[in-house]
Amino acid sequence: MLRYIGYSEYFATGEGVTEIFVSGTKVEIIDFTGSFYERSLEYYTFDDIRKYLQEIENDAECIKEHDREDYNALRTAYKLQYHAPTVAQIIKQGGYCTFKYKLHFNLS
Q: Which of 26, 32, 68, 101 is 20 to 30 A removed from 38 (C-alpha atoms)?
């Protein structure tokens, strides 16, 4: 069974920001996020995220290349390394892991 890293970012005025990172099958990811966030989910393989984490490590300026076709995946890896650095380190070293991370904040 193929395992993914799911990422969702949702924001709305007055509602705040919610960011979710979770690993698993697509069904497991949706079970964690719920149907509301399913609409904004993006799925990446561990190998994809590993590749972008390594690229960021080699060239931190690459995150500024907004016109890249693969920018969303690159941005997801970039955000993962700051929100969940231990998870990012495991992935960079060739590992796989199960994790669930949800951050919500509202500054209004």
A: 68
